[in-house]
Amino acid sequence: MKEYDIIAFGTGSSMNIISSLIERDTKLKVAVIENEKAGGICLTRGCIPSKMLAYPAELIQEIRRAKDFFINAKIVSLDGNSLLRRVQEDVDKESKMIEYSLRHHPRIDYYDKTSSFVGDYTIDVGGKEIYGEKILLCTGSKPLIPPIEGLKEVGYITNKEFFYSLKKLPKSIVIIGGGYVSLELGHFMAMFGVDVKVVEMLPDIIMTEEPEARALVRRELSKDIKFYLGYKAKEVRRSMGKKIVVAENKDDETVEVKGDEIMVATGRAPWKETNVNKTGVKTDSRGWIITDEFMHTTKEGIWSCGDAIGKYMFKHVANYESEIVYYNAFLNRRIPVDYHAVPHAIFTHPQVAGVGMKEEEARKKHDILIGEYKYENTAMGEAMRLKDYFVKVILDRDTYQILGATVVGPEASVLIQEIINLMYTKEQAGAMYRALHIHPAMNETVQRAFYNLREG
Ligand SMILES: Cc1cc2nc3c(=O)[nH]c(=O)nc-3n(C[C@H](O)[C@H](O)[C@H](O)COP(=O)(O)OP(=O)(O)OC[C@H]3O[C@@H](n4cnc5c(N)ncnc54)[C@H](O)[C@@H]3O)c2cc1C
């Protein structure tokens, strides 16, 4: 049996750790295991390709708005298929480069099969067994497929097929699920002429966002996407060349939503095939790996980070957690993970970004102040003729500690960064009041939200 100093599952965030280690220790023997394209979810079927489509989709929105500025612009033709193919090719090229460097590294063995624990620190990598002194479980997540009658037989795609193999956009699509993956890919498809319908069993889309953020996104996206909210997909069948999703609401009312294709975007699930329990790593009831605050699993020498632990499934969090693993597992440090200000963004139309607590949670835990400001009440917002987009901040009433924030509108993911950075300082909101803000930039909206506080 081949023995390694380190075995790493996954070629996403685990590579942050491996590349640092390989540089530091020139004798290290490493095994890297990956059952999909090299580079991890973010590069091959997640953040990166989806944003390569989000930008042109937003460009179409901008061209549509050009008439507000007396610009007579017309989209003469759209070729979403070529765009999608280019994105797939670009990502594939990068992934192949990563795979090549892993396969040709003198101190790395690359295993490309779904691999499982067969015993203590021992893994079957497709017919042979390997042993690791330390093991990194950065197995990520995969699409959660709900048990809907007929779904498997009729066929469907997920983000993986979308980015790996879809050659042509369908004329129409039913997306099951109304979370961020659905809204990002749905928006792209709708902008490139696909008839998009979204079936969501919860009462609203992106339910983890503030109600007013959801309402604004729903209002804007409803111009191009048809939503069936509060409808749970029960059955899928095929009729007259179409795929049909039969969905029911709580009053037993049924809708039949038709499309040429079905996409399932109902959340993420853990890779149970890894069989981590065979080595004593405990998982929660859903199969997510349990770690302590130092990212250590329940088994000595085995560490985990990223989607695999089922907490904040974002690439920037996976990267941060992999840093914590690096320090604690290999540099003998004891650094606890800190989730007090985890940000995220949804790149749909409009963009949404959030950090920390939402109003409801903050109110339960603190006396709060809420600051809100609309883009349109700043000079740049007026110049851009924006309407209803906003910045919302939530502060602790006594300490002015920033508890959370939401931004909805152009560059939300950029504007919120000012607030995120302050949440990592001692001074918190104080610096926002003192810092000169460039006039007339969109960021004035952020500062003015802090000046526009009311009791929460
Ligand atoms: C469509 C989409 C869009 C997204 N957009 C964003 C975004 O804009 N911003 C953001 O922050 N996040 C985004 N995410 C989430 C982000 O991609 C993930 O949080 C992140 O990539 C997870 O990284 P990781 O290191 O945990 O796993 P990765 O290393 O990326 O994945 C683990 C790899 O291990 C493989 N594997 C698992 N089990 C085994 C096994 N037993 N044997 C062999 N191989 C195995 C998996 O197939 C996988 O390829 C998006 C996700 C999706 C699906």
Short characterization:
This protein has 456 residues and is of the alpha/beta class. It is built from 14 helices and 22 strands.
Record the SSE blueprint.
Blueprint: E1 2-9, H1 14-24, E2 30-33, H2 40-45, H3 47-65, H4 80-104, E3 108-111, E4 116-119, E5 122-124, E6 129-137, E7 142-143, H5 151-154, H6 159-164, E8 172-176, H7 180-191, E9 195-200, H8 211-221, E10 225-229, E11 232-239, E12 242-248, E13 254-259, E14 261-264, E15 268-269, E16 302-304, H9 315-330, E17 343-346, E18 352-356, H10 359-365, E19 368-374, H11 379-383, E20 390-396, E21 402-408, H12 412-423, H13 429-434, H14 444-451, E22 453-455
Parallel strand pairs: 1-2, 1-6, 2-3, 6-16, 8-9, 8-14, 9-10
Antiparallel strand pairs: 4-5, 5-6, 7-15, 11-12, 12-13, 17-18, 18-21, 19-20, 19-22, 20-21
The structure holds flavin-adenine dinucleotide.
Q: For the terminal residues, how far apart are their CA atoms?
A: 62 Å
User: What small molecules are bound in this structure?
Assistant: flavin-adenine dinucleotide
Mean pLDDT: 98
The count of strands amounts to 22
The helix content is: 25-40%
List the domain count as a whole number. Answer: 3
Strand content of the residues, in percent? 15-25%
Structural class: alpha/beta
Gross morphology is: globular
The radius of gyration over CA amounts to 24 Å
Number of alpha- plus pi-helical segments: 14
CATH topology label of the largest domain: FAD/NAD(P)-binding domain
CATH architecture of the largest domain: 3-Layer(bba) Sandwich
Main pleated-sheet profile:
7 strands, mixed
CATH class term of the largest domain? Alpha Beta
The CATH H-level superfamily of the largest domain is FAD/NAD(P)-binding domain
Unreliable spans: none
